[in-house]
Amino acid sequence: MTATLTATTFDTATTTDQVTVATRRAWRHGLVAGALASLATFAIAAIADAAGVSFVDKNDKAIPLAGFPEFTMLFTLIGIAIAVRMAREPSTHSPRSCAPPSPSPHCRSSPTS
Questions:
Q1: Which helix H or strand E contains 13, and what residues bound it?
Q2: DSSP assignment, residue 89?
Q3: Which of the listed residues 13, 40, 42, 85 has the most CB atoms within 10 Å of its CB?
Q4: What is the pTM of this model?
Q5: C-alpha torsion sign, points 55, 58, 62, 66
Q6: Tens digits of per-residue pLDDT, 32-65?
């Protein structure tokens, strides 16, 4: 019986370029979505304020209308940063497969009928 070993090489330049493109895309799409969400929250808050909804907290301090889009954008930036970090980090988990010939130990054996 003979075994054949083959070496697998990865083109790191292509992988790095793909990560760079993915992070740029994440920033671009995230900022556009955040800007639109900020505009939407401001518009809804302004409509609610005009309708007489009170934005006063329990300490009798009013929440300014600009606070709604400000926090929307802040948390959008945090979400984008998390997405970019996840795009740059390689997955530490190995892919699991339940396909033969050697399924992973986590696979349940299917009941045979």
A1: helix 12-50
A2: S
A3: 42
A4: 0.62
A5: negative
A6: 999 999 999 999 999 999 999 999 988 999 999 9
